[in-house]
Amino acid sequence: MANESSSEMVDKRAEGLTEGADSGGDLPALQPERHGALEGLLILARRLRSAFAPLEPPPTFVADLKRQLLANAERVRAAARRRQERKQKAIVAAVGVGGFVYVMGLTAMGVRLILSFFGMLLGIILGWRRPSQKPRGAR
Length: 139
What we know:
The structure is a single chain. The chain is mainly α. The protein folds into 2 domains: 6-51, no CATH class; 60-128. It has helices at residues 6-19, 32-51, 59-126. Helix 1 runs parallel beside helix 2 (32-51). The protein starts with 5 loop residues before the first helix and ends in a 13-residue tail after the last helix.
């Protein structure tokens, strides 16, 4: 204990006061001029601790607070659940619209391909030909 600094000794004494295990002894290793000021502070800390003993809240207050917190937690969970459901509905709607646009695009391309094919087939049947290209030297 002789090797401990004065701040370490005061710290241990303050911890003892906080935990309620005050040794009641003085601080012999401190310098005399600092001993009086610190002893006064420790006495004040002891008085404050005895004057402001820890209080327990009334059981009705604890029960009411617990009920309110649980009810609030239930409301928060319900709100989060509703938000999640709205997000899922929005995602499903976006996928549905995207799928509809995709199918309509495929349908339009299919119709165009079929019309092109029938136009070519009709041209072959009726003997229509492309206008022939003129030879290079011809006017």
